[in-house]
Structures are given as structure tokens and as C-alpha cells.
Amino acid sequence: xxxxxxxxxxxxxxxxxxxxxxxxxxxxxxxxxxxxxxxxxxxxxxxxxxxxxxxxxxxxxxxxxxxxxxxxxxxxxxxxxxxxxxxxxxxxxxxxxxxxxxxxxxxxxxxxxxxxxxxxxxxxxxxxxxxxxxxxxxxxxxxxxxxxxxxxxxxxxxxxxxxxxxxxxxxxxxxxxxxx
Length: 180
Known about the structure:
Elements: H1 2-25, H2 37-49, H3 64-91, H4 97-127, E1 133-137, E2 142-147, H5 153-167, E3 172-177
């Protein structure tokens, strides 16, 4: 238990240091704008109303390196916490056999999801040399964001096919983030 608390504390301190350095070095005095998915959908529908092509959505004006790093860090912390909880259930003396089996299954699923995301990021980057690719697999959707100034429909279809090959029949959300 002490090791888990130490790891958690070090992770939080690392996050604090990274965010502090970012805040101190950001040119806009640390003002960041994160766009929620509902705001993205609203912006996309407004783009359609204005006659713009909203099939490929630009998701934010924050530096793509910072955005990708922040999303990756948030995903990692969230999954690490979930993994810690599942490991605690598996190590618990009060948990039933069924609860331990479910925890083991969820842990395997989480590790499988991480592996598939990493494979997809490398595969997509290798196909068309994007500067960066971010794959986030959720319960019922896989979100793919590529760092590129534009994304053609054929590139979008190719990415969707790669995701389908790796994850099976699941909805795929493909977006691009322009480079600066």
C-alpha cells in the first residue's frame, strides 16, 4: 500500500511540475482554452450552416504539442488510477472470486486497449507521415486525432479502416489538428 501511495504522490508531483513549467513558459501567460466535445459538435454544426466543410473538425487553437501531451497525460493518469483500483481488488482478501475475476478481466481489457492504441498510432503515422497521432479508445467510440493541416476523405477512410482492423466494428471519430 505504501508503494502505491508513493507512486501516486510521485505521479502527482510530476504532473504539478510539468504544468508549472508549461504555465511559466507559455507565451499567453498560461491562458488555455480546452474545447469540450459538445462545443466541438456545436462548432461543426455552425460550420455546416455557414457553408463550410465540417466533416473534418479543427478541435482547438492551443499548440498541438501541448494539447496532445495534455490529453496523453490525462489518459495515462486516469488509466493508472483505474489500474491501481483493479489491482487493489485483486489483492484484497475481502473480495469474492467473482469480483477478482471481473477485476482481472477489466485489467486485461485496459492493457489490451493501451496496446491497440499504441499500435494504431504507429501504424497511422507510418502510412502517411503525420507529425503526431493521438488514439483514444473509449467504451463505444475510438477517437483519432492527427496533427496535420488538412485531412482528405481518403485519408480519413484509411484511418477508419485501420481502426476497424484493430478494434473491430466500433464507431470511429477522426479529426485533425492543424500544425502551427
